[in-house]
Amino acid sequence: xxxxxxxxxxxxxxxxxxxxxxxxxxxxxxxxxxxxxxxxxxxxxxxxxxxxxxxxxxxxxxxxxxxxxxxxxxxxxxxxxxxxxxxxxxxxxxxxxxxxxxxxxxxxxxxxxxxxxxxxxxxxxxxxxxxxxxxxxxxxxxxxxxxxxxxxxxxxxxxxxxxxxxxxxxxxxxxxxxxxxxxxxxxxxxxxxxxxxxxxxxxxxxxxxxxxxxxxxxxxxxxxxxxxxxxxxxxxxxxxxxxxxxxxxxxxxxxxxxxxxxxxxxxxxxxxxxxxxxxxxxxxxxxxxxxxxxxxxxxxxxxxxxxxxxxxxxxxxxxxxxxxxxxxxxxxxxxxxxxxxxxxxxxxxxxxxxxxxxxxxxxxxxxxxxxxxxxxxxxxxxxxxxxxxxxxxxxxxxxxxxxxxxxxxxxxxxxxxxxxxxxxxxx
Length: 427
Fold this sequence. Notes:
nine-stranded mixed sheet, FAD/NAD(P)-binding domain, disordered C terminus, 427 residues, six-stranded mixed sheet, alpha+beta, 21 strands
């Protein structure tokens, strides 16, 4: 059985370890931080991501820490509804779509790795800074927190070491320099009463000015009886460092939403009541033309860092983990396994990377803003017909590997929430 190293104990690396363990391997994870903590804010786990979590045997624990997604509603910069669709099982998928705190999800995977693989399966405070290899294996160069260095030897290595991956930089020295997109994300959480029914994701704003996403990530947070609400605001700004943990101020963004009037939530107050606010610049990493170097392969953000839009980054890493584990179980030679994994995953993921640069389904808000010259509309059907919006969403769902159930049926899969309310009242 191959002796495999995994570089990085983020969600992608941890799920890879669990997938390899299920195939009979006993991998070792090397992580640079001395202690894993539940850092970060919210992530949107799509139906195909929930399927992967269920296959790991963790669905019930995941459900207990997350929130079921029921509705996804889009508004312009005045709070006028543009479009809405159901989510997960409420649309007809076999699996749910769920919102969760990234740190809580990572810690679930971490605890499970320790339980199933043992305490020695994760080496903390060990930053892999480079590698060398020969026909028999891979040597990893490690820097420790005390400044010392060491080397470890394995049959193969999977680099799940994130957006700043030293392994990717060594593998692709001419393709590793990222470019700032000109957009910075403000990411925050607010503790409050549930918004609407407590199961809704909101997409708000004119992307030419700023755009905002709001969704719940925990019920009865820390026993308060309230929901922890995750919100993200994108705005053009000067470049900052590529670090998820930079602190930001809501004073920079609250004025951008003074025109928004939604009857069930005050988005300005939501931002003012934030418990924490972080900055993160949207950095453009060009799609790679190869994830494999001999016995070393890239996975997750190290392989396909994408804009954190649409909830696909972490979910695509889950798919990476399953496929690479399956291929390692099917091939004696790790290089052959990695090539097969690369062939299965790289091209479709690169298409998603490019789609996220173009805003994905969020483009409908830009279309409405441009067609109305940024002014309120009287009839959304005259601006963005439901059939046109529906086709945009159907195309996006197909792109990420979760085609809408019944998409070929005559009935539209999208809706306007006010139309549904009117129909219910009439009946």
